[in-house]
Amino acid sequence: MMEILEEVELCFPLLNSSCKKPMRTPFEFILSYIILSSITLLTTTLNLLIIISISHFKQLYTPSNLLLLSLAVSDFFVGLLMVFQIILIDGCWFLGDLMCTLYYLLDYTITSASIGTMVLISIDRYVAICDPLHYSTKVTQKRVQVCVFLCWFFSIIFQILILKDNLKQPGRYNSCSGECVVVSDYIAGLVDLVVSFIGPVTVIIVLYMKVFVVAVSQARAMRSHIAAVTLQGSVKVTAKKSEMKAARTLGVVVVVFLICLCPYFCVAYTGDNLLNASSDAFVMCLFYFNSCLNPLIYALFYPWFRKCLKLVITLQILQPGSSETNIL
After folding, report:
1. pTM beyond 0.70
2. How far is Cα 299 from Cα 252, in angstroms, rounded to an integer?
3. For the structural domain made of 28-222+232-319, what CATH number should be given?
């Protein structure tokens, strides 16, 4: 009877080098499965709706929305990656060492691209609020497209360099069969910490502090002069209000992003700089859950997203000329 119990606890019962499964009650297993599956379904569905909306409706072809599209793409892939976390519920990796390394490569690349996109969003809002007269000339569709491409390209190259040893020999750091572990050396880990976390987060916080200060001063100025504006001035005031509302909305996105991101990096860069997929599932899922929150924030603050949502769900986008629909 004891042998049967011992075999059940192993990822690969026939291998002496097999990892042991963590002890979980059936209730914990089922609850984890339900939660992860729900987040996966919700994240992929909501972000796919954003991707379809911004890609389909021509009125949404703006530099700011292109950045939201990039963020939605990364969030969509995060939702797909949650499938691997579902596989890891029982603490065992059955897909092989190469797939393990590729999983982490994809995970880290998406994380880097998300952070890079957040930096670009912060820069976009900074220029829109702090230098509105030159916004249309500084932030063009072409420039944003190039920045988004470079963001994803360098994220891929950078993470390949960070994980090069793991890619050369997948599974070299696994202590037993059924484990999924990647390790980077001290220098690589330090560079990754600065480039992927400390640097971008510092830029984001500094830019949004400046945006907040300027937005508050503009709001006070508008309140003091609101009674004396002309019709033309009213249009300018409305435009400024629109820009500040967008900054406030994206500010919420950034704050939520940082709250979900910090625990992930705190765990990833403590101790011996080793990430174990099963033991760090909680902080990874917290980061993943942020990808589910972003579309909900858009739905709460953006009327255009709610309108697009209705048109997509009712399949009205399949009608001829639907891309020309007035969304804003």
Report:
1. yes
2. 13
3. 1.20.1070.10
